[in-house]
Amino acid sequence: MSRLQTEAERASDIRRAGTLTRLAEACDEITSGIAYKRAKSAKQDPEFFNPNFVKLNSRIIEAYVRFRARLDKGETEWTGPVASTIRGDKDLMTYVKLRDAERTHSHKSKRPTPQSRRIDEIIDRIDNIHDQAILREVLAKAREAKRQLSIMVDALRKHPEIDVDALREGRHSPRKIDGPQPQSVISADDTKTIRKVVARLRDNDELEEFDLIYRSGRVKMGVGAGLDLIFPEEMKLLERLAGLGATS
Fold first, then answer.
1. How many domains does the chain have?
2. Are 229 and 149 in contact (CB under 8 A)?
3. What's the pLDDT tens digit per position in 97-149?
4. Which domain holds residue 26?
5. Whether residue 134 is found in the same domain as residue 170
6. Is residue 146 part of a domain?
7. How far is 78 from 198, CA to CA, in rounded Å?
8. Cis bond leading into 81, ω under 30°?
C-alpha cells in the first residue's frame, strides 16, 4: 500500500490517494472490529461486519464505505472505493486479498506448526506479490472449507441414525438404532437457522466468493479439480432438517 500511495502522491493524483486511504482504513476497521462497534452504536445490524466471521472482499468494503457515508449525513469523503472499482484494479484487488489472507493467518495458533511455517517460508520466497496473494487466498479458503466441513460432520455425528462415514464415501444407508428412539433436539429456531444455511449453500452468488458452486444437488469447487465439499446426500439431509424440498 505504501508503494501505491507514494505513486499517487508523485503523480499528484488526489482522487487516487483518497481511494487508497479509504480502502486501507476500511480494511483496518473491518478486521479490527471498529466497524462492528460503529454499526452497533448506530443501531444497525453489526453482524455484517463481525470480524470473527467476515470475509474481506470488494463487496464488504463497498458496504462499509456506504455505511460510513450514511453516518456523515450529508457531504462526505466516503465516496468510494466501490466493489467494481476494486475488482477492476489489479493493485487494489491484490491489497484486499493480502489483507484477508493476513487476517486469516492471524486467527491461527500463536504457535504455528512446522508445516505451516514451511508453507509461509515458501510463499515468502515468491517474488511476485500477486502470486503470493493468490496462493495465500487459496490456502485460506481451503482451511475455512475444512473447518466448516468439520463442524457439519461433528453436528451430523450427534444423530446416531446417520452413518456419516458412509455419506463421506458416497453411500447412504441409514443405521438401525436398537431401543427407544431419541426425541428430536431440533427446535423451531434451529430449523430456521438450518434453512438459512441451506439457502446460502444454494446461492451461487454467495458461493462465488469462496470459489464454490451449487450444482446437481451438491456444493463443489467452482474451479480446479471441482472436488465436492458437500455431497448430495448431505444436502438432502440438511434440506429435510430445514423442512425444504430438494432441488437439483
1. 2
2. yes
3. 888 877 766 555 445 677 777 887 888 788 777 787 788 778 777 777 777 77
4. 2-139
5. no
6. no
7. 35
8. yes
